[in-house]
Predict the structure of O-acyltransferase.
Amino acid sequence: MSGETSQSATEESKVRYRRTQSVTRAEEITKKESEQRKSQPDKPCHRPRDSLFSWSSGFDNFTGLVNWGFLLLTMGGIRLVLENFIKYGIRVDPVQWFTVLTGKGEGEGYPSVLLVSYALVPVMICLMMERGLASEIIPDSAGMAVHIINIIVLVLIPMVVIHVKGHIFSLVGAMTVCFIYCILFLKLWSYVQVNLWCRVEKRQHRHSRSGRRQSITIAQLQNGRDQEHERGGSNGSATGYCNDKDKVPALVHYPDNLHPADLFYFLLAPTLCYELNFPKTTRIRKRFLIKRMLEVIIGVHIVMGLFQQWMIPSVRNSLVPFSNMDLTKTAERLLKLAIPNHLMWLCFFYLTFHSFLNLMGELLHFADRNFYSDWWNANNIDTFWRTWNMPVHKWCVRHLYIPVVELGYSKVSASVIVFFFSAFFHEYLVSVPLKTFKVWAFTGMMAQIPLSFVAKHMETTYGPRWGNMLVWASIILGQPLAIMMYYHDYVITNYNDVLV
């Protein structure tokens, strides 16, 4: 019996050996064929290869083409600069910058400064309400109602004042007011919501402790004494550090954070999300700080120079073809405006998210400098909006998206709500200063939802590179189109009699 088994196993192994010998991989065939061809006397010089521009070639070193494209773009930019100087002359005037930025174009009393100063009123109302809620002097329902009314009125104040007294506001002053009030709205929302989380957690902990009296071990008693010691060190020490050798900062606990110094630090910090204990740096890097200060100063001049020399003439020249609906000339003006607008947008991005926010973070010892991610590599629209403005993205996820999902809504519904919220404030920052209430910015932001599906389709069907190209095309062409539409509506609304 054992002999038959061994014989069958031997035959099976022979069959397997014949099968393996009958099948050869393509690489082995190619290798054998190449060796046979090389042995021929005709000295062969050809072998199977794909062209370098074919995806299957695996070639990815296009450094020379990138240098060629950069040089070509530089030469084209220089030509446009020379054409602009020849046609319009030198329009850059630093005196006008100073006049606009200091508000001398406004009416009596600097209304923008007064309106910004008034923002301290809702801030103090918010702090007093939180103190009343923490001490349980104010009922929760009444306190939250006051908070909601307070932050809604905060947004409405610039809309009403600028609409009624718009003739005494300069355009830059009105834009500054709306921008500050918008940031203040987001920060106070975060401040109220975080304190609500802390207040609920504290009450739940208190109820759980009062529900059943538990025995306390020596270790728990010692841990409690250590926590009290840390609190005493944070309140009595000027530095806020414990007395141990590691110098570990003592954590602030609710409601010890409810004082003006903590709130005003958060209002100045380069973030929109409130925390009781922000990560802090130990020192200010002087060289880093000086670099950021120089970048802010130089960057403001570059942005203003591009705006005066290049943007204003291009926008003005687009009025007539845009009004006459001349599609050919409108497309030409759109492409001509796209280059200076995109350069100014890139400068504004670097100036704001790298130079200015790092400057504020360094002065305030704020350690979290994740102000932007690699949005330039975004393969779809969703990735771009999640990476280019990290403070706003973190706020939307933390205070809007996650709470909406926790209420039982789907992720798609939460995303639509976030885009709707963002679209409202994009429209708010444009329409209120211009006193031209249109919906172009709102429509452009809501159009990002179907555009994201198109970008994802491009990414999955044609590859990530095409999705990235669609993202860049929407950035380069979308903004100048919105500028042309708003400028047209602004001129028609305010200067139509003069044009006629």
In short: Residues 17-26, 213-221, 228-245 have pLDDT under 50 and may be disordered. The radius of gyration is 32 Å.
